[in-house]
């Protein structure tokens, strides 16, 4: 499912919109491709993620999903979008600090179930989750409460949770900000390989252009 | 697989003490209103019950005795006109005239006293009245022609006077009601038309009527056979069954006509009105407390949702359907309200049993079961509160589920 920005101007950013930006123009994110949003802080990276996630509606213009206007989305449609179509890693991660890492990850099965889906093959088995966690170096933290982790560790938990569901898009807001280069690369490789296996598109935001990712189309805002 | 992790998320954000406080508050509000409704229902049942007299008021009416009566210039009996007028009053259910003895009757009894025996002897004044107007119905309360034994009912006041005043002063033994009922004494009847011998026995005691009562059949027989004059004498006293709620009207009527009545019994009637008023106040209080406690419970639920706002938003952002969150809260509320309803009705039943036992001491028999309308009304009230709460939760969660500008 392609995501089309059609003359979107976030209301809080209306005064700061510049030429040559995704704002107030027409831009299509094509499913299966990889995009990197690059901009200094305050330009609206998180706003863009919020608009795609459906948590923000304070914008002019239209957001179209395969031609359908997002303003027509009901709350239940948004929940399907987030559960089955578009996986999002928010900048503030949105984890449950009082649950263990494993419970945070397993929660996705309950969410699938709440949509009356059978256990989706895209909800991974515990073994796969442990394998991914091992790759990201947080395998030993599976039974630790998320509230007791460092922010970098939490980022990796949030990434794993995002991967543990079916998706056509995975949108990540500053996912590597607290990871060292090596761990960031491992995480990115995991994300791209799983996305590729589902023919999913990737949108990732990063603080500045120094952190440009090979193979990702840069998008200015 | 159930939604265990989701439940855990919500439960972990709550403060049990606040929840328990809110439940207790809600519980008390409902309890007050339930118990008031149940007691009120019981009270109404007792009032409407034919066998019980709390809804009616029996009044013994007589004319005031003045100097004129003493000089035999005025009449203290009720004429037929006056009786008919009394009968026709809308506040009067029915009346019965007292018939007094028109003959001389002397009761006597020998009391064994060591070797000698002493006898007591007294002249008797008796009355009879319709059986329906008696507050006691002893089994052997009947007399037929040919019976030697006359059953009698004494005022409870008599035996109290004897036991607490006369007997102690004279060094005589106090007598229980049962003992008195064992005694058989002689009654000699003498009138213009002849004499006769009977025996008498006390078969019961009346709180309502301050008179020595004998069955109407005996009184009619004895008056016609041994009576001194009139065939159907006018009555000095009348017993009136009045409608409880119309007591003030009839009191006013008596006052206007110059009739006297037993005020003490009236107080018992007023007790009914007072009880009704107290239950009314309890019900009003219950409604007020219920409103306060229900409002506080609604506030608690809003607070609980605010407290879980992060968790709810986070679940929504991970794609958890808002309807499922509403369902979760709705189920918890249903559980809480069911517990409140069941415990409440059980407790009301318990309290009702205690009050029933208490009322039995006063001779009232309240229904043993809970009133069906109280049960149904209680469930309806709680169910509607549950619906209101669920709608309330729904609107709160729904607003969180929409993109922010449209909230």
Describe this structure in words.
The complex is a heterodimer of chains A (221) and B (407). Chain A has 221 residues and is α/β, with parallel strands linked by helices. Chain A has a single domain (3-220), classed as 3-Layer(aba) Sandwich (Rossmann fold). Chain A has six helices and nine strands, in the order βββαββαβαααβαββ. Chain A has helices at 45-53, 75-85, 101-114, 126-136, 151-163, 181-197, and strands spanning 3-10, 26-29, 34-38, 59-65, 68-69, 86-89, 169-173, 201-206, 217-220. The longest helix of chain A is centred in the last third of the chain and has 17 residues, at 181-197. The model of chain A has no long low-confidence stretch (mean pLDDT 88). With 407 residues, chain B is of the alpha+beta class. Chain B folds into two domains: 4-52 and 270-406, no CATH class; 57-262, no CATH class. In chain B, 55% of the residues lie in helices and 18% in strands. Chain B is built from twelve helices and eleven strands. Chain B has a five-stranded mixed beta sheet with strand order 5-4-8-9-7. Chain B has a four-stranded antiparallel beta sheet with strand order 2-10-1-11. In chain B, strands 3-6 form a two-stranded antiparallel sheet. In chain B, β8 (184-191) and β9 (194-206) form a beta hairpin. The two termini of chain B are 33 Å apart. The mean pLDDT of chain B is 82. Chain A binds chain B through residues 11, 53-59, 75-76, 78-84, 88, 90, 94-96, 98-99, 103, 106-111, 113-115, 119, 161, 165, and chain B through 1, 3-6, 8-9, 12-13, 311, 313-324, 398, 401-406.
Give a topology summary.
The complex is a heterodimer of chains A (221) and B (407).
Chain A: E1 3-10, E2 26-29, E3 34-38, H1 45-53, E4 59-65, E5 68-69, H2 75-85, E6 86-89, H3 101-114, H4 126-136, H5 151-163, E7 169-173, H6 181-197, E8 201-206, E9 217-220
Parallel strand pairs in A: 3-8, 3-9, 6-7, 7-8
Antiparallel strand pairs in A: 1-2, 1-4, 4-5
Helix pairs in contact in A: 3-5
Chain B: H1 4-12, H2 16-48, E1 56-63, H3 67-70, H4 80-88, E2 92-97, E3 99-100, E4 104-113, E5 116-124, E6 127-128, E7 149-155, H5 156-170, H6 177-182, E8 184-191, E9 194-206, H7 216-226, E10 237-243, H8 247-257, E11 259-261, H9 263-307, H10 309-317, H11 322-361, H12 372-401
Parallel strand pairs in B: 7-9
Antiparallel strand pairs in B: 1-10, 1-11, 2-10, 3-6, 4-5, 4-8, 8-9
Helix pairs in contact in B: 2-9, 2-11, 9-12, 11-12
């Amino acid at each position: 499912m392609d995501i089309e920005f059609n003359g979107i101007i976030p209301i809080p950013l209306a005064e700061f919109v510049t030429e040559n930006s995704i704002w107030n123009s027409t831009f299509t994110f094509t499913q299966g491709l990889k995009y990197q949003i690059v901009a200094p802080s305050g330009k609206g990276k998180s706003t863009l993620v919020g608009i795609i996630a459906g948590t923000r509606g304070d914008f002019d213009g239209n957001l179209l999903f395969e031609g359908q206007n997002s303003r027509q989305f009901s709350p239940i449609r948004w929940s399907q979008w987030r559960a089955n179509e578009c996986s999002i890693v928010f900048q503030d991660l949105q984890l449950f600090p009082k649950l263990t890492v494993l419970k945070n990850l397993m929660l996705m099965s309950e969410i699938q179930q709440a949509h009356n889906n059978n256990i989706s093959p895209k909800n991974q088995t515990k073994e796969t989750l442990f394998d991914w966690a091992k790759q990201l170096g947080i395998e030993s933290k599976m039974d630790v409460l998320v509230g007791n982790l460092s922010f970098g560790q939490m980022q990796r938990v949030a990434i794993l949770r995002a991967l543990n569901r079916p998706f056509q898009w995975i949108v990540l807001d500053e996912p590597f900000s607290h990871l060292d280069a090596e761990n960031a690369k491992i995480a990115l490789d995991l994300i791209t390989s799983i996305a590729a296996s589902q023919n999913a598109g990737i949108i990732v935001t990063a603080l500045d252009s120094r952190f440009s990712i090979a193979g990702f189309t840069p998008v200015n805002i | 697989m159930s939604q265990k992790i989701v439940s855990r998320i919500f439960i972990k954000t709550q403060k049990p003490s606040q929840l328990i406080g809110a439940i207790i508050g809600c519980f008390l509000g409902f309890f007050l209103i339930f118990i008031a409704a149940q007691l009120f229902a019981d009270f109404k049942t007792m009032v409407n019950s034919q066998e019980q007299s709390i809804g009616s008021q029996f009044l013994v009416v007589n004319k005031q005795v003045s100097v004129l009566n003493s000089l035999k210039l005025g009449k203290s009996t009720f004429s037929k006109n006056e009786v008919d007028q009394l009968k026709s009053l809308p506040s009067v259910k029915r009346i019965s005239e007292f018939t007094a003895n028109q003959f001389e009757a002397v009761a006597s009894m020998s009391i064994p006293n060591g070797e000698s025996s002493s006898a007591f002897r007294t002249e008797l004044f008796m009355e009879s009245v319709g059986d329906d107007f008696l507050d006691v119905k002893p089994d052997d309360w009947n007399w037929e022609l040919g019976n030697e034994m006359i059953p009698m009912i004494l005022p409870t006041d008599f035996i109290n006077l004897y036991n607490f005043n006369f007997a102690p002063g004279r060094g005589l033994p106090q007598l229980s009601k049962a003992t008195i009922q064992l005694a058989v004494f002689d009654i000699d009847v003498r009138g213009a038309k002849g004499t006769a011998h009977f025996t008498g026995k006390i078969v019961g005691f009346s709180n309502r009527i301050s008179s020595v009562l004998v069955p109407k059949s005996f009184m009619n027989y004895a008056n016609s056979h041994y009576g001194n004059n009139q065939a159907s004498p006018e009555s000095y006293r009348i017993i009136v069954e009045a409608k409880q709620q119309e007591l003030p009207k009839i009191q006013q009527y008596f006052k206007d006509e110059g009739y006297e009545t037993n005020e003490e019994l009236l107080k018992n009637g007023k007790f009914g009105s007072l009880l009704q008023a107290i239950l009314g106040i309890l019900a009003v209080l219950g409604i007020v407390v219920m409103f306060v406690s229900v409002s506080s419970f609604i506030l608690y639920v809003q607070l609980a949702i605010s407290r879980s706002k992060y968790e709810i938003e986070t679940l929504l952002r991970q794609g958890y359907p808002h309807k499922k969150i509403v369902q979760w809260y709705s189920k918890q509320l249903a559980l809480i309200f069911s517990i409140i309803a069941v415990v409440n009705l059980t407790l009301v039943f318990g309290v009702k049993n205690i009050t029933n036992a208490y009322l039995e001491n006063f001779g009232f028999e309240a229904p043993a079961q809970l009133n069906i309308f109280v049960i149904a009304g209680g469930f309806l009230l709680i169910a509607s509160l549950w619906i209101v709460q669920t709608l309330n939760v729904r609107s709160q969660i729904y607003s969180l589920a929409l993109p922010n500008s449209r909230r």
